[in-house]
Specification:
CATH topology of the domain at 4-57 and 172-382: Neuraminidase
Distance between the termini: 21 Å
CATH architecture of the domain at 4-57 and 172-382: 6 Propeller
Number of helices: 0
Structural class: mainly beta
Strand order of the largest sheet: 1-3-4-5-6
Radius of gyration: 21 Å
Number of strands: 33
Strand content: over 45%
Largest sheet: 5 strands, antiparallel
Helix content: under 10%
Length: about 375
Protein backbone atom coordinates (compact mmCIF):
# COMPACT_ATOMS: atom_id res chain seq x y z
CA UNK A 1 0.00 0.00 0.00
CA UNK A 2 1.25 3.46 -0.76
CA UNK A 3 -0.20 4.84 2.43
CA UNK A 4 -0.05 2.77 5.54
CA UNK A 5 -2.64 3.16 8.28
CA UNK A 6 -1.66 2.60 11.68
CA UNK A 7 -6.77 4.06 11.45
CA UNK A 8 -11.17 -13.41 11.94
CA UNK A 9 -10.72 -24.86 12.53
CA UNK A 10 -10.32 -27.23 10.37
CA UNK A 11 -6.94 -28.98 10.48
CA UNK A 12 -4.91 -28.47 7.29
CA UNK A 13 -7.96 -27.27 5.36
CA UNK A 14 -7.20 -25.65 1.99
CA UNK A 15 -10.32 -24.34 0.28
CA UNK A 16 -8.33 -22.95 -2.65
CA UNK A 17 -4.76 -22.00 -3.54
CA UNK A 18 -1.41 -23.66 -2.98
CA UNK A 19 -1.20 -26.64 -0.64
CA UNK A 20 0.50 -25.59 2.61
CA UNK A 21 4.07 -26.78 3.06
CA UNK A 22 5.71 -27.76 6.32
CA UNK A 23 7.92 -25.34 8.23
CA UNK A 24 11.37 -25.18 6.62
CA UNK A 25 14.81 -24.43 8.11
CA UNK A 26 16.51 -21.17 7.25
CA UNK A 27 20.12 -20.44 6.35
CA UNK A 28 22.58 -17.58 6.79
CA UNK A 29 22.24 -13.94 5.73
CA UNK A 30 22.52 -10.38 6.91
CA UNK A 31 19.76 -7.81 7.54
CA UNK A 32 19.86 -4.45 5.72
CA UNK A 33 20.85 -1.22 7.48
CA UNK A 34 18.45 1.59 8.41
CA UNK A 35 18.51 5.16 9.67
CA UNK A 36 15.74 6.55 11.84
CA UNK A 37 13.79 9.83 11.71
CA UNK A 38 11.89 10.73 14.88
CA UNK A 39 8.43 12.33 14.66
CA UNK A 40 8.18 14.60 17.73
CA UNK A 41 5.10 16.12 19.41
CA UNK A 42 4.14 19.79 19.31
CA UNK A 43 6.19 21.98 21.71
CA UNK A 44 3.66 21.84 24.58
CA UNK A 45 2.93 18.10 24.23
CA UNK A 46 4.92 15.00 25.16
CA UNK A 47 3.53 12.10 23.12
CA UNK A 48 2.38 11.34 19.61
CA UNK A 49 0.79 8.64 17.52
CA UNK A 50 0.84 8.54 13.73
CA UNK A 51 -2.16 7.29 11.77
CA UNK A 52 -0.93 7.24 8.17
CA UNK A 53 2.25 7.76 6.14
CA UNK A 54 2.67 8.12 2.38
CA UNK A 55 5.46 6.82 0.16
CA UNK A 56 7.43 10.07 0.56
CA UNK A 57 7.55 9.73 4.34
CA UNK A 58 5.02 12.50 5.05
CA UNK A 59 3.03 11.42 8.09
CA UNK A 60 -0.15 12.50 9.88
CA UNK A 61 -1.43 11.76 13.34
CA UNK A 62 -1.97 13.28 16.75
CA UNK A 63 0.07 15.11 19.37
CA UNK A 64 -1.03 15.27 23.00
CA UNK A 65 -0.07 15.58 26.63
CA UNK A 66 -0.05 12.14 28.25
CA UNK A 67 -3.45 10.73 29.21
CA UNK A 68 -5.27 14.03 28.66
CA UNK A 69 -7.38 15.56 25.93
CA UNK A 70 -7.39 17.08 23.44
CA UNK A 71 -5.47 15.34 20.71
CA UNK A 72 -4.01 17.90 18.33
CA UNK A 73 -4.01 16.99 14.61
CA UNK A 74 -0.53 17.22 13.11
CA UNK A 75 1.47 16.60 9.96
CA UNK A 76 5.17 15.71 9.87
CA UNK A 77 7.23 16.58 6.81
CA UNK A 78 9.82 14.24 5.32
CA UNK A 79 12.50 15.50 7.73
CA UNK A 80 10.33 14.92 10.79
CA UNK A 81 9.33 18.54 11.44
CA UNK A 82 5.88 18.74 13.05
CA UNK A 83 3.14 21.14 11.92
CA UNK A 84 -0.25 21.70 13.57
CA UNK A 85 -3.26 21.26 11.28
CA UNK A 86 -6.24 23.65 11.50
CA UNK A 87 -9.54 22.44 12.99
CA UNK A 88 -13.26 23.33 12.97
CA UNK A 89 -12.87 24.80 16.45
CA UNK A 90 -13.90 21.84 18.63
CA UNK A 91 -11.88 19.96 21.21
CA UNK A 92 -10.95 16.93 19.09
CA UNK A 93 -9.74 16.42 15.51
CA UNK A 94 -7.95 13.49 13.92
CA UNK A 95 -6.31 12.98 10.51
CA UNK A 96 -6.66 9.36 9.38
CA UNK A 97 -5.37 9.11 5.83
CA UNK A 98 -2.90 10.72 3.38
CA UNK A 99 -2.32 10.16 -0.33
CA UNK A 100 0.93 10.41 -2.27
CA UNK A 101 0.13 14.01 -3.26
CA UNK A 102 -0.09 15.00 0.40
CA UNK A 103 -3.88 15.40 0.69
CA UNK A 104 -5.04 14.48 4.20
CA UNK A 105 -8.49 13.31 5.36
CA UNK A 106 -10.05 12.73 8.77
CA UNK A 107 -12.58 14.32 11.08
CA UNK A 108 -12.83 17.46 13.17
CA UNK A 109 -15.27 18.59 15.85
CA UNK A 110 -17.10 21.89 15.87
CA UNK A 111 -17.43 23.79 19.20
CA UNK A 112 -20.65 21.91 19.99
CA UNK A 113 -18.76 18.59 19.88
CA UNK A 114 -20.19 17.36 16.55
CA UNK A 115 -17.73 15.47 14.35
CA UNK A 116 -17.54 16.31 10.64
CA UNK A 117 -15.60 14.74 7.74
CA UNK A 118 -12.76 17.00 6.60
CA UNK A 119 -9.93 17.23 4.13
CA UNK A 120 -6.67 19.18 4.43
CA UNK A 121 -4.94 20.28 1.20
CA UNK A 122 -1.58 21.99 1.72
CA UNK A 123 -2.69 22.69 5.28
CA UNK A 124 -6.00 24.32 4.25
CA UNK A 125 -9.03 22.73 5.93
CA UNK A 126 -12.21 21.94 4.00
CA UNK A 127 -15.34 20.31 5.43
CA UNK A 128 -16.76 17.49 3.30
CA UNK A 129 -20.55 17.32 2.82
CA UNK A 130 -22.66 14.57 4.37
CA UNK A 131 -25.82 12.88 3.11
CA UNK A 132 -29.12 14.76 3.51
CA UNK A 133 -30.41 14.39 7.06
CA UNK A 134 -27.02 13.40 8.53
CA UNK A 135 -25.34 15.73 10.98
CA UNK A 136 -22.07 13.88 11.58
CA UNK A 137 -19.44 11.98 9.68
CA UNK A 138 -15.80 11.06 9.27
CA UNK A 139 -13.35 10.56 6.38
CA UNK A 140 -11.22 7.44 6.83
CA UNK A 141 -9.01 6.95 3.79
CA UNK A 142 -8.00 8.51 0.45
CA UNK A 143 -6.74 6.80 -2.70
CA UNK A 144 -4.03 8.11 -5.01
CA UNK A 145 -6.83 9.09 -7.42
CA UNK A 146 -8.26 11.38 -4.72
CA UNK A 147 -11.34 9.27 -3.91
CA UNK A 148 -12.20 9.56 -0.21
CA UNK A 149 -14.00 6.87 1.80
CA UNK A 150 -15.67 7.35 5.15
CA UNK A 151 -18.95 7.60 7.00
CA UNK A 152 -21.96 9.90 6.82
CA UNK A 153 -24.11 9.27 9.86
CA UNK A 154 -24.14 5.45 9.94
CA UNK A 155 -23.71 5.03 6.15
CA UNK A 156 -20.52 3.98 4.37
CA UNK A 157 -19.84 6.61 1.66
CA UNK A 158 -17.28 7.85 -0.82
CA UNK A 159 -16.49 11.37 -2.03
CA UNK A 160 -15.07 12.10 -5.49
CA UNK A 161 -13.63 15.60 -5.87
CA UNK A 162 -16.10 18.23 -4.70
CA UNK A 163 -19.11 16.00 -5.32
CA UNK A 164 -21.67 15.11 -2.67
CA UNK A 165 -21.09 11.75 -0.95
CA UNK A 166 -22.40 8.58 -2.56
CA UNK A 167 -23.48 5.60 -0.46
CA UNK A 168 -21.28 2.52 -0.89
CA UNK A 169 -23.32 -0.70 -1.18
CA UNK A 170 -22.92 -3.22 1.66
CA UNK A 171 -24.16 -6.81 1.95
CA UNK A 172 -27.62 -7.30 3.44
CA UNK A 173 -27.54 -7.27 7.25
CA UNK A 174 -23.95 -5.96 7.32
CA UNK A 175 -22.71 -3.62 10.03
CA UNK A 176 -19.26 -2.44 8.88
CA UNK A 177 -16.67 -3.06 11.62
CA UNK A 178 -13.39 -2.52 9.71
CA UNK A 179 -12.72 -0.67 6.48
CA UNK A 180 -9.71 0.24 4.39
CA UNK A 181 -8.84 0.91 0.77
CA UNK A 182 -5.65 0.30 -1.17
CA UNK A 183 -3.83 3.25 -2.68
CA UNK A 184 -5.03 2.16 -6.10
CA UNK A 185 -8.64 2.19 -4.97
CA UNK A 186 -9.69 -1.35 -3.96
CA UNK A 187 -11.89 -1.24 -0.82
CA UNK A 188 -12.05 -4.08 1.71
CA UNK A 189 -13.39 -4.50 5.23
CA UNK A 190 -15.30 -6.68 7.67
CA UNK A 191 -19.03 -6.96 8.29
CA UNK A 192 -20.76 -8.11 11.47
CA UNK A 193 -24.00 -10.00 10.79
CA UNK A 194 -27.05 -10.58 13.00
CA UNK A 195 -26.14 -14.26 13.49
CA UNK A 196 -23.00 -13.21 15.39
CA UNK A 197 -20.52 -13.97 12.61
CA UNK A 198 -18.00 -11.51 11.21
CA UNK A 199 -16.93 -11.85 7.57
CA UNK A 200 -14.33 -10.22 5.34
CA UNK A 201 -15.74 -8.26 2.38
CA UNK A 202 -14.00 -6.99 -0.75
CA UNK A 203 -15.56 -4.47 -3.12
CA UNK A 204 -15.04 -4.72 -6.88
CA UNK A 205 -14.01 -1.80 -9.05
CA UNK A 206 -17.68 -1.11 -9.84
CA UNK A 207 -18.54 -0.97 -6.13
CA UNK A 208 -20.17 -4.38 -5.76
CA UNK A 209 -19.45 -6.00 -2.36
CA UNK A 210 -18.45 -9.66 -2.14
CA UNK A 211 -18.50 -11.64 1.10
CA UNK A 212 -15.42 -13.86 1.09
CA UNK A 213 -15.12 -17.53 2.06
CA UNK A 214 -14.84 -18.33 5.77
CA UNK A 215 -13.86 -21.10 8.16
CA UNK A 216 -16.80 -19.99 10.32
CA UNK A 217 -17.12 -17.82 13.39
CA UNK A 218 -15.13 -14.59 13.32
CA UNK A 219 -13.04 -13.37 10.38
CA UNK A 220 -10.63 -10.43 10.73
CA UNK A 221 -8.44 -8.87 8.04
CA UNK A 222 -5.01 -7.46 8.87
CA UNK A 223 -3.58 -6.32 5.51
CA UNK A 224 -4.08 -6.37 1.74
CA UNK A 225 -1.74 -5.81 -1.16
CA UNK A 226 -2.50 -3.63 -4.17
CA UNK A 227 -3.68 -6.65 -6.17
CA UNK A 228 -6.43 -7.23 -3.60
CA UNK A 229 -5.10 -10.35 -1.86
CA UNK A 230 -6.10 -10.08 1.82
CA UNK A 231 -4.61 -11.77 4.89
CA UNK A 232 -5.81 -12.15 8.46
CA UNK A 233 -7.48 -14.84 10.56
CA UNK A 234 -10.61 -16.96 10.23
CA UNK A 235 -12.50 -19.17 12.63
CA UNK A 236 -12.97 -19.35 16.40
CA UNK A 237 -10.24 -19.61 17.56
CA UNK A 238 -8.64 -17.87 14.59
CA UNK A 239 -6.03 -19.42 12.32
CA UNK A 240 -3.83 -17.62 9.74
CA UNK A 241 -5.44 -17.36 6.30
CA UNK A 242 -5.17 -15.68 2.90
CA UNK A 243 -8.18 -14.57 0.85
CA UNK A 244 -7.38 -15.00 -2.84
CA UNK A 245 -8.43 -12.85 -5.79
CA UNK A 246 -11.30 -15.19 -6.66
CA UNK A 247 -12.76 -14.83 -3.14
CA UNK A 248 -11.67 -18.26 -1.93
CA UNK A 249 -9.64 -18.87 1.21
CA UNK A 250 -6.31 -20.61 1.79
CA UNK A 251 -5.40 -21.70 5.28
CA UNK A 252 -1.69 -21.01 5.78
CA UNK A 253 0.61 -23.83 6.85
CA UNK A 254 0.65 -24.50 10.60
CA UNK A 255 3.94 -24.13 12.46
CA UNK A 256 4.65 -26.10 15.61
CA UNK A 257 1.99 -27.59 17.85
CA UNK A 258 -0.51 -24.73 17.90
CA UNK A 259 -2.81 -24.13 14.90
CA UNK A 260 -3.95 -20.71 16.12
CA UNK A 261 -2.58 -17.37 15.00
CA UNK A 262 -3.00 -14.64 12.42
CA UNK A 263 -1.43 -13.43 9.20
CA UNK A 264 -0.55 -9.77 9.75
CA UNK A 265 1.03 -8.53 6.49
CA UNK A 266 1.41 -9.40 2.81
CA UNK A 267 3.84 -8.14 0.16
CA UNK A 268 2.96 -7.37 -3.45
CA UNK A 269 4.48 -10.66 -4.62
CA UNK A 270 2.89 -12.85 -1.97
CA UNK A 271 5.20 -13.14 1.03
CA UNK A 272 3.11 -13.25 4.22
CA UNK A 273 4.17 -12.50 7.81
CA UNK A 274 2.26 -13.39 10.93
CA UNK A 275 2.29 -15.00 14.35
CA UNK A 276 1.31 -18.41 15.66
CA UNK A 277 0.93 -19.96 19.08
CA UNK A 278 4.10 -21.16 20.77
CA UNK A 279 4.84 -24.04 23.14
CA UNK A 280 3.84 -21.70 25.96
CA UNK A 281 0.21 -20.76 25.19
CA UNK A 282 0.72 -17.30 26.71
CA UNK A 283 3.13 -16.22 23.98
CA UNK A 284 3.29 -15.89 20.18
CA UNK A 285 5.98 -16.88 17.68
CA UNK A 286 6.77 -14.88 14.49
CA UNK A 287 6.45 -16.67 11.14
CA UNK A 288 6.96 -15.96 7.43
CA UNK A 289 5.16 -17.81 4.65
CA UNK A 290 6.76 -17.80 1.19
CA UNK A 291 4.61 -17.31 -1.95
CA UNK A 292 4.63 -21.10 -2.46
CA UNK A 293 3.18 -21.62 1.04
CA UNK A 294 6.37 -22.77 2.79
CA UNK A 295 6.39 -21.61 6.42
CA UNK A 296 9.47 -20.41 8.34
CA UNK A 297 9.62 -19.77 12.06
CA UNK A 298 11.64 -16.60 12.74
CA UNK A 299 14.29 -16.20 15.46
CA UNK A 300 13.39 -14.85 18.89
CA UNK A 301 16.33 -14.37 21.30
CA UNK A 302 16.40 -16.47 24.45
CA UNK A 303 16.08 -13.33 26.60
CA UNK A 304 12.77 -12.36 24.96
CA UNK A 305 9.39 -14.02 25.40
CA UNK A 306 7.77 -13.60 22.00
CA UNK A 307 7.79 -11.75 18.68
CA UNK A 308 5.13 -10.07 16.55
CA UNK A 309 5.30 -9.24 12.85
CA UNK A 310 3.93 -6.06 11.27
CA UNK A 311 5.27 -5.93 7.70
CA UNK A 312 7.06 -7.94 5.01
CA UNK A 313 8.75 -6.73 1.84
CA UNK A 314 9.08 -8.30 -1.61
CA UNK A 315 12.37 -10.00 -0.64
CA UNK A 316 10.84 -11.79 2.33
CA UNK A 317 12.40 -9.43 4.89
CA UNK A 318 10.07 -9.13 7.91
CA UNK A 319 9.66 -6.25 10.34
CA UNK A 320 8.15 -6.45 13.79
CA UNK A 321 8.70 -6.35 17.52
CA UNK A 322 10.30 -8.65 20.09
CA UNK A 323 8.82 -8.52 23.57
CA UNK A 324 10.41 -9.15 26.94
CA UNK A 325 9.11 -8.97 30.48
CA UNK A 326 6.81 -6.16 31.58
CA UNK A 327 6.67 -3.50 28.85
CA UNK A 328 10.13 -3.99 27.34
CA UNK A 329 10.11 -4.29 23.54
CA UNK A 330 12.41 -3.60 20.60
CA UNK A 331 11.69 -2.86 16.93
CA UNK A 332 13.44 -5.49 14.82
CA UNK A 333 14.02 -6.77 11.30
CA UNK A 334 14.32 -10.42 10.29
CA UNK A 335 16.33 -10.90 7.09
CA UNK A 336 15.25 -13.34 4.42
CA UNK A 337 17.06 -16.13 6.23
CA UNK A 338 15.20 -15.48 9.48
CA UNK A 339 18.03 -13.82 11.41
CA UNK A 340 17.08 -10.92 13.65
CA UNK A 341 18.63 -7.47 14.17
CA UNK A 342 17.34 -4.49 16.12
CA UNK A 343 16.37 -1.35 14.22
CA UNK A 344 18.31 1.78 15.29
CA UNK A 345 17.40 3.50 18.55
CA UNK A 346 18.96 6.98 18.83
CA UNK A 347 18.76 7.08 22.65
CA UNK A 348 18.18 3.66 24.24
CA UNK A 349 18.68 4.96 27.78
CA UNK A 350 15.70 7.29 27.36
CA UNK A 351 13.63 5.54 24.67
CA UNK A 352 13.36 2.26 26.51
CA UNK A 353 10.87 0.54 24.19
CA UNK A 354 10.12 0.53 20.50
CA UNK A 355 7.65 -1.17 18.18
CA UNK A 356 7.10 -1.59 14.43
CA UNK A 357 3.57 -0.78 13.21
CA UNK A 358 3.86 -1.23 9.44
CA UNK A 359 5.62 -0.34 6.21
CA UNK A 360 4.85 1.74 3.13
CA UNK A 361 4.98 0.42 -0.42
CA UNK A 362 8.21 2.44 -0.87
CA UNK A 363 9.95 0.53 1.94
CA UNK A 364 9.68 3.01 4.84
CA UNK A 365 9.27 1.19 8.16
CA UNK A 366 6.86 2.82 10.62
CA UNK A 367 6.93 2.56 14.39
CA UNK A 368 6.85 4.09 17.82
CA UNK A 369 9.32 4.79 20.63
CA UNK A 370 8.28 5.18 24.23
CA UNK A 371 9.49 6.05 27.71
CA UNK A 372 6.90 5.35 30.42
CA UNK A 373 4.26 5.25 27.65
CA UNK A 374 5.30 8.62 26.12
CA UNK A 375 7.56 9.25 23.17
CA UNK A 376 7.95 10.02 19.47
CA UNK A 377 6.82 8.06 16.45
CA UNK A 378 9.53 6.91 14.03
CA UNK A 379 10.26 6.20 10.39
CA UNK A 380 13.18 3.89 9.57
CA UNK A 381 14.59 4.35 6.06
CA UNK A 382 16.78 1.76 4.37
CA UNK A 383 20.32 2.89 3.62
CA UNK A 384 20.82 2.26 -0.08
Amino acid sequence: MATKSVLACVALLVIAGATPAAAAPLGGGHPPSYRVTLLPPLPDDDSVYFNAVNDEGIAVGSSRTSFTLPDHPVRWDRDGRVHALPTLGGEQSLPLGIDNRGAVVGWSQTPDGTSHPVRWDRGVLRELPVLPGDGTGSAWAITDAGVVYGQSGETLVRWTGDDAPVAVPVPAGCAVRQFNVTSRGLPYGTCAFPDGTTRVVRWSRDGTPRVLTTLGGVDVYADANERGVIVGSSGTPGVPVRWNLDGTLTRLAPVGDSPTGTASAISENGYVAGTVGSADPRFQSPVRWDPDGTAHRLDVPADRLEGFTAAVDEHGVVFGTKHGVWTTSEAVVWDRDGHLAELPNPDPEWLTSSTVEGMTRSGLVLGQFSHSFDGPAAIWRPIR
